[in-house]
Amino acid sequence: MQLKPNAYRLNETVKSVETMSRFALAVLALASGVYTYLGVRGLLDGSASFVFFAAVIYSAAVSVAIYAFWSFMLRFVPLVTSGVQRIGLFLTMAVGCAMIIAMSSWLNAAALAGSAALEQHMAVTLQGYAEDLDQAHANALASQSLLPDVERAAERFAGLAADERESGALTGTQGSGSVVQLLTQMSAQMNQLASTITGSREEVTLLFEQGSARLATMRELVSTPGAIEPRSDSFQAEAVQLSAVIAALQQTDVAASVKRASADLSAGFIAPVADGRSGDLALRQDQVMETVRASVASQSAALTTAADEILATPSVEQRRFVPLSSAEAVIRYWQDFIPSWAGAISIDLLPVVLVLVLMIVHDAMRRDSASLEEAENITAAEMLRAMALYRQMEAAGIDVATGRPMPEPEPMTPEPIEEVAEAPTETGKVTPIDAAQHKRTDTTRPA
């Protein structure tokens, strides 16, 4: 059984899958149109009917454009054999692919991963707000680190006053005089400053609890299943409230107040007049009060330095939650949704594989056809027509090899008939011998 040529089988296979190729291309174009509709619907504003018809028209235009473009590529690219022309078609196909990605693929990705991208945006914003709350809380608590120094200074002044009152440890004369009055005054100022720091601690704790509650609500909005638009709106409202809490936390920082109070201790130091009855006691009181002034100045410088270090800490910048559309979120966080992007682009650019397959098959058919003889490519109908033409040429007296009329045969001349001598027989009669018969029997017979 003679097999058919490979080029013939390839040609028949291409014809058999042509309908399937058109059907597959139509399905891909329709799928791209559907996801384009879902993606573009979230970008349009207006009434429900306007958004619906505008999205349908756009998606229908995208489907038709994709089907028409790839139909042209499937038909023309495999037939072109020139290298320059084929490169031109490839460049045209590359431009068309870029246009398809621009008008359809990113909307397909928005439809496939839009909700997840918005949740990603909310999660990233939530993380930023959590960091801001922690930083603001840490800055507010940094002022609390000044409380031990202030309390220790207040206790020291109060202890010196008690010692001076009971035993005259500073002036050598016990009793309540100018030195005791000055030390008691310094102790009272330190206690007042400590009370200011302690009072801010409760407010900081309350604000931090409120901020933590807002963060918990925002986490629930991010992780709760359901429609993304209502959750995004609620998330934005919670973000505004949390920003207010963070701003209030920054305002509770008492480092600036401590700095001003410590500066007042030194700059506003007012020593009472020595009230000693004797000049020697008054002199000793002045000396002690001068020592107290130096101690207060040293304490003021230490508190000021500590307050400056706290104030040098960068403050928390006001953060703002910016709502995004699904398409914008997919573009911003594209690295987190590479599989969705790959699927969206593959729907639109999968016909590239079909174009390349057909191009390779047509090249193979051309090579196989070039290597076959004409007799191996002839069809049955062509063979029947050739035989009929051959018979007509023979009937018309035309030489098939040269295509010219055959020469007429030359007339034959009759050969002379030789007379044969008669031989006598027993009966005396002569029997004639036919010349033609004699001629046929003239040859010797094989033994």
Automatic annotation (TrEMBL):
Name listed for the protein in its UniProt record: DUF4407 domain-containing protein
Sequence ranges of Basic and acidic residues compositional bias: 436-447
Superkingdom classification of source: Bacteria
Keywords attached to this entry: Membrane, Transmembrane, Transmembrane helix
Residues passing through the membrane, by range: 20-38, 50-74, 86-107, 341-361
Region (Disordered): 402-447
